[in-house]
Amino acid sequence: MRRFVSDTLVLAERNLVRIPRAPELLLAFTVQPIMFVLLFRYVFGGAIQTGYSSYADYLIPGIVVQNIAFGGFVTALGLNEDVHKGLIDRFRSLPMARPAVLAGRTLADVVTNALSLGVLLATGAAIGFSFDTSVGDALAGIGLLVLFGYAFSWVFAFVGLLTETPESANSVGFIAVFPLTFVSSAFVPIATFPTALRDFATYNPFTIIVDALRYLWEPGHGISGANVWEALAWIFGILAVFAPLAVARYRRATGGQ
């Protein structure tokens, strides 16, 4: 266990030190979130009626969840490259804990997600978003996001190990996540959807997690606190399914090690 923890921290650091050496990676965590916030707030926001006093208050929980989910693309692309360029074979020759490769990658995502979250909240404050709740509930929402981002990193770890090239990993991940984020309550009230889409959106995990954030950060507006418990159930359910799948796929991709 001591070796596993130590190796996980080393590999998490390895994934993070790449960022200063490849500054373009920062675009996904800084510029892209700002672009999404400004696009929805000032291009679409004037046409969307939400029942909130400001569209910014409605938007920020949704855009944060979307961006945290998309942050897992780095894990999918990185793992795919490591496997197919032979780096994992090098790891297998070292006296290290095998699961640390996946654990280190997903742990690094927690740090990059925190950076992205800070950028989004700062941008949200600049366009009028504010927490209308206690400090404890605000922090609980942030903790929920960290857990959600960590769980989704395992989804993308599985996608990265399942596909043959970084391009296909990017395509499969985008096709899987993009509809889930938009067919939800992230950007518009689901009451405006056609019946079939509304039924899907009601049980969509993104809707439940976004509404849990709105309950914690902007209570009222007819949102139930049950969404928080349902969001936690989804998060741990995603972890329970995709962490074993990613580990099993990793063992298969590395010759059963």
Provide the succession of SSEs.
Answer: HHHHHHHHHHH
The major sheet is characterized as:
none
Which percent range fits the helix content?
Answer: over 70%
Q: Globular, elongated, flat, extended or rod-shaped: what is the shape?
A: elongated
Please give the radius of gyration in angstroms: 19 Å
Number of helix segments? 11
**pLDDT below 50 for ≥5 consecutive residues: which ranges?**
none
How confident overall, as mean pLDDT? Answer: 83
Tell me the distance between the termini.
17 Å
Short overview:
The protein has helices spanning 2-21, 31-44, 55-70, 73-84, 87-92, 100-126, 135-162, 166-182, 195-203, 205-217, 226-253. By secondary structure, the chain is mostly helical. It starts with a helix and ends with a helix.
Q: How would you describe this structure to a colleague?
A:
With about 260 residues, this protein is mainly alpha-helical. The protein has one domain (about 1-255). The chain is about 75% helix and about 0% strand. The protein is built from eleven helices and no strands. It has helices at about 1-20, 30-45, 55-70, 75-85, 85-90, 100-125, 135-160, 165-180, 195-205, 205-215, 225-255. α7 (about 135-160) packs parallel to α11. It is elongated and about 60 Å long. The model has no long low-confidence stretch (mean pLDDT about 85).
